Amino acid sequence: MVNEKPVYYYKNTSSIKVPEDAGEVIFANCSDMTVENINASSGTVGLVIAYTCGSLISNNNADSNNMSGICIVSSSDNTIENNNVSNNVAGICFEHSSNNKVWNT
Q1: Domain of life here (predicted)?
Q2: What's the pLDDT at 1?
């Protein structure tokens, strides 16, 4: 639990839309995932996307975290759009990632 909300962890899966009650979201080796309209604030990291491709991260509030709002690691071809990532140490961090699109975030 993060701020009395569930943490959603997905590994080796595809084509899932994360429930909107998430307090934190973690993807590991996933594809075609969707995270929309969640409030992942005031934790450590709002969203962790690792070894994941072809996913949509849209219209989320990932602010005031101790580290990053969104962390993208070894991931490609994801779309990150219309997210609030203010007041974090890093708004969005990218490590060993390519071909990700960031819009209005």
Answers
A1: Archaea
A2: 87
